[in-house]
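Milestone 3.1: sequence recovery, worked example.
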């Protein structure tokens, strides 16, 4: 209802009252209506501002201001604060990158975008890799234009009398066609961040899909409406089918379900315990540094120990209800489990 119509309505309502009383009441009503309108408009402006700020963060639009250096004279290699970018040989004659100017322009744009993603990941997880991330672009990678990978190299050594694993370097390989999909970039960058914690595959992939979908808006794996009922898949032993997932290279009829279910699960935890939940999880892991003693991926019970500490409540029953094969652990249990896992790995031929 427009303001003029509202005023006519108010006058009609008070018609028949003494003239002085009528106009006093009209004036009060007009002031109240104006006050309500102003309050509503202010609320709408506030909601719009929050929405714009959230969208800016979600789209990772906060510009980075990195120092970018292009290797002369051919511009086949470039560096920024946290990345290196290399053009593989099979791109030298690519029609979009076969000139120095084209490669330099592409490198500056790519590194600027990735630095913005890097800053966003740092805000979301509260940590950052200690090494530069080395990105190589290909025309074909491993014989295809449909696969992008992140590889973390490790070294082993003693520190404070303990045999630990250390990150030696992080490498990302993209076919150009895949790199140009910003959702893929965000997904793989997430792995570059979280791989240093040797997480269970389902958790690593779930977080990567969450970032890809909710922060880069490049997701192709929508959430399920529920984690239970017909949405749950178990193996012949009644164990959640996420438990035996091998990751990107593990294809099959359950691949899409695994991506969607893992994303739904990590999103559910964040909704329950707040946007800083995973920051707390990684802070706790970093403080204990137990992950550095692992020679393989951690088991889900290990992860649930830290999820529970960050949540402030025991999450073992929650995961057991979803048919994960987990049990409540203490730190001593985890240390014993790590030694058993490492012994099994060392005995393998």
């Amino acid at each position: 209802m427009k303001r003029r119509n509202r005023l006519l309505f108010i006058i009609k309502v008070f018609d028949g009252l003494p003239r002085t009383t009528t106009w006093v009441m009209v004036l009060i009503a007009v002031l109240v209506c104006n006050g309500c309108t102003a309050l509503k408009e202010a609320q709408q402006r506030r909601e719009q501002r929050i929405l714009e700020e959230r969208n800016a963060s979600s789209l990772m639009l906060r510009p980075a201001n990195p120092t970018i250096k292009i290797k002369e004279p051919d511009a086949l290699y470039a560096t920024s604060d946290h990345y290196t970018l290399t053009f593989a040989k099979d791109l030298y004659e690519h029609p979009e990158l076969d000139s120095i100017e084209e490669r330099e322009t592409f490198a500056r744009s790519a590194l600027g975008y990735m630095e913005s993603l890097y800053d966003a990941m740092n805000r979301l997880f509260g940590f950052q890799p200690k090494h530069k991330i080395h990105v190589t672009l290909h025309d074909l990678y491993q014989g295809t234009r449909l696969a992008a990978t992140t590889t973390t190299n490790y070294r082993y050594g003693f520190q404070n009398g303990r045999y630990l694993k250390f990150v030696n370097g992080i490498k990302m390989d993209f076919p150009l066609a895949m790199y140009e999909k910003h959702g893929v970039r965000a997904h793989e960058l997430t792995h570059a961040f979280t791989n240093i914690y040797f997480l269970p595959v389902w958790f690593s992939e779930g977080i990567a899909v969450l970032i890809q979908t909710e922060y880069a808006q490049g997701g192709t794996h929508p959430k399920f409406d529920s984690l239970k009922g017909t949405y749950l898949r178990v193996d012949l032993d009644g164990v959640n089918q996420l438990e035996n997932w091998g990751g990107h290279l593990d294809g099959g009829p359950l691949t899409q379900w695994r991506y969607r279910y893992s994303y739904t699960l990590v999103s559910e935890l964040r909704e329950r315990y707040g946007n800083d939940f995973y920051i707390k999880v990684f802070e706790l892991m970093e403080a204990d540094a137990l992950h550095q003693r692992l020679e393989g991926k951690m088991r889900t019970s290990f992860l649930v120990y830290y999820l529970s500490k960050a949540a402030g409540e025991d999450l073992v029953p929650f995961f057991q209800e979803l048919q994960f094969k987990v049990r409540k652990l203490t730190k001593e249990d985890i240390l014993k489990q790590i030694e058993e896992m490492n012994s099994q790995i060392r005995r393998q031929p």
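Strands lie at 69-70, 77-79, 83-87, 133-138, 149-159, 162-175. The first helix runs from residue 3 to 13.
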